[in-house]
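Write out the 3D structure for:
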Amino acid sequence: MSFQANWIKPQRDFGDVCPTFVKAFAANPSKKSKRATLTITAMGVYEAELNGTRIGDYVLAPGWTTKRLQYQVYDVTHLLKKENTLTITVGRGWQRSPLPGWTPPESGEKHPRTQQPAGLYAQLTLDGEIMETDDSWQVQESPVRFSEIYDGEHYDATVSGTPLEAVEIYPGPGWPLVPQQGDEIREQDRLRPAAVLTTPKGETVIDFGQNMTGYVELSLPAQANVRAGSQVAISFAEVLDKDGNFYTENYRGAKSIMKYTCIDGEQRYKSAFTFYGFRYIRLDAFPVAVDAAYFTAIAVHSDMERTGYIESSHPLINRLFENVIWGQKGNFLDVPTDCPQRDERLGWTGDAQAFIKTAAYNFDVERFFTKWLADLALDQTESGLVHHVIPDVLNEGASAAWADAATICPWEIYLAYGDAAILENQFASMCKWVDYITAHTKDQYLWTGGTHFGDWLALDSPAEHIRGSTRADFLASAFYAHSTHLVVKAGKVLGRDVAAYESLYEHIVKTFLDRYRDYRTQTEHVLALHFGLTGGNEEAVAKSLMRKVAMDGYMLQTGFVGTPYLLHVLSTYGYTKLAYTLLLREEYPSWLYPVTKGATTIWERWDSIKPDGDFQTTEMNSFNHYAYGAVADWIYGVAAGIKPVEAAPGYRKVQIAPQPDARLGWLSASVKTRQGLVRSKWQVIEDRVRYDIETPVPAEICIAGQVYEVEKGCHTFYSNIE
């Protein structure tokens, strides 16, 4: 399709006001062959209407990309009339809001990037005739008086009929335009208030019962007798403090405020160009008596198909899994953000690679990660450096276990969905990343001397040292080996000559074994075992890990890097009972501790709320931070035992090897794969275990050490409980 319009912008600076571009045109809707499509993108985010009806249901279009812009195509034939008015409002969105890295200079002036024009690029095609954006369009002030990603949105419903002004053609950002690649962002769950509260401070707070990402829809009926000009002001929060008061300090600089100026009579409003992370809202101003029926929370995220389900006999495990799901929904809003509420909301690479296996069990994320990884490759420097966040607004990198998303994420998507195209698309990026490490180390065949996040937020060091006690060079060198190994495996899938990388990998492993002969932290044990860096001493290192966990009080001490692999390593080497002990632990630190504190999403810290009810530091304390939710891939893949076979990716063959524990009476997991539904359920009945397996393809089933090769269908097995 030809898409060759002009970039247009207002002739004057509209300041904080979002401009609405306007085009009037005539059509003959009775003509049977008449078909109209609208193709559109913008610098910022847009919402389009034809004759007063919203076009499409894509929220925050065109999404967030780097060095390129997606465009969308809508069929608008059904909206045509004889005389038509097309309006497109453009908000700041990600491209023009003051994100980190775009901070104002010390003078207080706004960063030049936030002063980029509200550009629009669109064309309407009617039976082959094209009406593109040009200087015949007009623009006017919209009722959206302010909108930014962090600070919220202000809407004045009394504003209408503002004067039409001229637009001008300008060069635009100069980025290539690409068709929609990722999943569209859409409205999903709608939640009604769980409670209307009056806090000890006397504030009116509404609890929606679930931490989430999205916005609030305000619906005021005519009988509320709202008067024009009256004000609504709403603040957003994730938690209440231990006294029951509204708490926003962890939002840092993000104001997260919704303001609305009313008209007379019945009205409805929801934010169009921003989003919030919240469970609670505070009514800072409200013109009438509060009624819970006036408010609906709308969850917004990329439109991914739900594919994975876990249920058990343990209510806290069930709530933990729901928290994992809500954490993914809340942070998979076009990019895999670290958190959706504070002045950050960035696509951190470390969080993404830690969680991607779980992500692919829970939802179909192939399109989601294909788009994000394409941006990772575009942001990658010529030297191969991968930045900390994608899209890159920080211009910082590279850290081991973060930048390794360049190799880990493509490989996991390939295993989950079986399409080698993701490896083909990313192979050059994967190689460049390994080459970068090779060229930027102090010691050949190790990665030493870099600056790394370490085992972020691990508990094995003083509280002020948030990078943990795992040696940075150990961690970096382990991931160097792992990424090189993934390049080799990907290259063989693609039929590439990877002999040089095979040789490099052998040298890395040998040098690692020569350098690191001891393991000082839980994470060092875990990485050595999980990445095959023990030189044949797996059993001894696994026993050492078991003893380390026991000496630490049968508590995990791992952070963002070690946690995703910890239970996998324990169960791989015969310590599944200990893995369950860690999973089922309810005291701090544990996965279930936040659940006992009322968490409805995954926390950034093991003790975001401390046992005494106080909060962790306001500088870094998100209550919706999905990385530790990676434990769910152990529940799917080990406890329930569902795994794709590497030699037959995309679940063309399935390995099902459940590992039950009597402390969990029963467990059921299902995954909708490209081949069909895989289901695994086990139940402890007195001293025996019953296994019910459903597979759409031939499967290798391992029950209590006995291997069965089965055809597709439903199968039942029994074993004694160990």
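Residues 220 and 267 are 5 Å apart (CA to CA).
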